[in-house]
Task: structure prediction
Amino acid sequence: MNHVREYRRAQKLSQMALAEKVGVARQTINLIENDKYNPSLDLCLKLAWELNTDLNTLFWRDKKES
Amino acid sequence: MKKLDKKLIKWFIGKNVFVDERIQKEVGIFATRTVFVLFVFELLFGFGIVVYASNSQIADFETLFYISTFVQAIGVLFLVYGFMLIPMAKKRLLVKEVSPEDKKEFVKRLQHSWVRIAPLEFVGFWILHSLFYFNEGFFNVLFSFKEIISALIFTIFFTLFMSLYEKMHVKTIKDDE
Result:
């Protein structure tokens, strides 16, 4: 599971607000948070910038988890 | 993705849908599948018609032509619906989300947009429908009272249907859902 939801909540952002910031639909953010959609690298970077973190923190998972 | 491609997707799935990378990807998958199925359908159908026409004694080729073009048109329509639009609707790709406070205004704008293009629908239907009877004199048919009334009825029903259909696909945002 990625950490997009935790970081979004920590920033007090709704899914809609984050979606508008990164230029996607709200449903896309919801699917990413639930690990049902693999975002492009470009979108991952945008998410990391908007949530003031880096790709590793947001998306990294160990081999056992995947 | 080119602007033209985005416009094409919007034209196909509805102008109110937000086209982001996920939508593009899903549309791409469904479109590839549909193209493949259409190719197989056209190939088999065309081959079947050729075999049938060359091996059986057909007296009326005109009827065969009408039937085969009709089956083709219906087949293409069903395949596009079955392999593209229904799976897209199932994945909720055709849903437009708006905030509760904006919903009323958005639906109003949606209905106005259909009313704005109603004259175009009227003219389009009027000319196309008259073309069907052009052997009876195109302009005589075009300016007949019956033709104008049928175009008017079509425009009213189509506008109502499309505004209701698009209204149905407008959902209120529920975070984390």
Observations:
- The CA atoms of residues 21 and 50 of chain A lie 7 Å apart.
